[in-house]
Structure formats: C-alpha cells, structure tokens
Task: inverse folding
C-alpha cells in the first residue's frame, strides 16, 4: 500500500534523526520482568525504505534469548548535545542469512565481531518499527512521528 | 549494611556518568507488552547516596499508568559524542510528598510544569537502582557496575 505524503515525510524525519544519532539503546524484557538496555549500532546503509532497522548481533547473546521470549523491544536514540530524542517501539527478529550478512558487513564491525562476517555466531537483528515518537527541543511536546 | 569500597567506587563511577548525561530515556512496559521510552531529566541535586534517582513527573501521565502496572523500568543514559552509555534497571515509585517536591524544585522545571511545584498534578518519581551496566568506549565490553 502506498504511504501518504505525511507518512513519507514523517518516515524521512525519523530516519534522519536515527541516522544522526546512530547508536541506539536497545531495551529488552527478561523472563523476570526486568528491562535491560545496551548500545547497538544501527546500520545506516541498510536504509529504512520498508520501515525496518538492521543490527548485527551475536546469535547466542543474552539479548537474543530475551527477545525470543518477548520480541517487542524499544530502541531509544538520544543526543543530549543536540537535544534530539527518539523512541521506537518495534518487533525484533533474528535473521541468519549469509548473503544478507555479507552484503551488510562493514569492516568497522570487527570491533564487536573480530572473527568477521563468516563467523557462524554472527547474525542480524531486524527490527520492524511499530510506533515511534521524537522530541527535537527541550520544551517540545512529543510528536507522533510514525505508525499512528 | 556498609558497602564495600568496590561498591562505593562503582556507585561513584555510575553517578558521575549519569550526571554527565543527565537526560535519561525512561522505558516502561505497557499493558499490551509494548515498550515505550521518553526523555526524563534526572535531578542532579537529589544525589545518589542511597542508590535512588529522582525525577519530576505529572501524576496522571501515561508513563505513571504504565509503571503502576509494571514498576520495573529501564533508564538509559547515552552520549554518543563521548561514547558513554549506561543502562539502569530499577524499580519506580510515584512519590507525592509536598515537602520533598518543594525541596527538589528548580525554576528550570517550569519548562515542563508551568504551574510550578504547588500544582497538585506535579509529583516525583523515585527509581531504586537494582542493576546497572556501563560502556565507556566503543570497544568496551560491558562492565557490571552496580548491584551484582
Ligand atoms: C558504541 C557501541 C556500539 C555497539 N554496537 C553493537 C552492535 O551493533 N551489536 C552488538 O551485538 N553489540 C554491540 N555493542 C556491544 C553491546 O552493547 C553489548 O555489550 C553486547 O552486544 C552484549 O549485549 P547483551 O549481553 O545484552 O546481549 C556495542 C557497544 C558499544 C559501546
């Protein structure tokens, strides 16, 4: 279904803010009801055309176990210097597709994945954005950016 | 119980990073299992001596309804410029104590609470830190900072 101009505009605004901050804090719910977050590098070259965001992850990491129990996550993008804040509520999914992994791989990722893209433990996380809000000044009321 | 030197040191490191970023993204779980976050200004003058963090809030806001159902929240403090990231898992509690509200009030808060500290809708959120982790460089493995 074609998106309206407003939807396209809000998707562009959202993606611009996300690319500007780039590192998300990804929050997951564990089996005890505790919320955990950790920094995760959004892949800018994966684009946002179909409303999805992409990350590299280790397939056996605690966050993957958590999201296999509760796949609804939050991504927050905060830049206190610029007073930009984004909240994304999304659905996360582990993707083990070697072609896609090679296509999205960049050398800078070896900081977290020293064995490179062919390590069988390296996988992708696909986050389908459900709702998102953003704030772009200290006094701004929330703006419904996307998905409402 | 007295804390060990290591606990005190890690609490000091944690509090230093939190004060440096100051604006948390506070993530709550709603009744449909969706995770929402929004920027919230930590009160630096409230201190961190007893392992609690303080925020002003509107008593009738969606986040308050969400945390009354599920009081376990996450606070993330991110500064992509300095590569500082903190994740706090904590328990939130609404506090309606007029003396404490007046004591913690600062004029800058009228950006969000234009009617001032005597508005009956103004309340405090107390977050008791349960566990926290921090990362202070892109390549840093997570450090168990507190509460483990
Ligand atoms: C700036 C920064 C970016 C990071 N990006 C990623 C990433 O893209 N993928 C990843 O798996 N871990 C990344 N990490 C490490 C994670 O924050 C985390 O320590 C690791 O994924 C383990 O998380 P878990 O134990 O909660 O599963 C990054 C760390 C920092 C400091």
Result:
């Amino acid at each position: 279904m074609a998106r309206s101009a407003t939807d396209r505009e809000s998707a562009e605004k959202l993606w611009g803010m996300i690319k500007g901050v780039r590192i998300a804090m990804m929050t997951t719910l564990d089996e005890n009801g505790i919320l955990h977050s950790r920094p995760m590098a959004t892949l800018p070259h994966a684009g946002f055309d179909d409303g999805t965001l992409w990350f590299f992850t280790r397939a056996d990491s605690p966050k993957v176990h958590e999201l296999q129990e509760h796949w609804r996550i939050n991504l927050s993008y905060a830049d206190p210097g610029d007073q930009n804040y984004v909240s994304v509520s999304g659905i996360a999914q582990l993707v083990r597709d070697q072609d896609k992994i090679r296509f999205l791989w960049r050398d800078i990722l070896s900081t977290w994945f020293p064995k490179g893209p062919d390590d069988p433990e390296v996988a992708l996380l696909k986050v389908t954005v459900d709702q998102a809000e953003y704030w772009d000044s200290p006094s701004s009321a929330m703006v419904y950016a996307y998905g409402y």
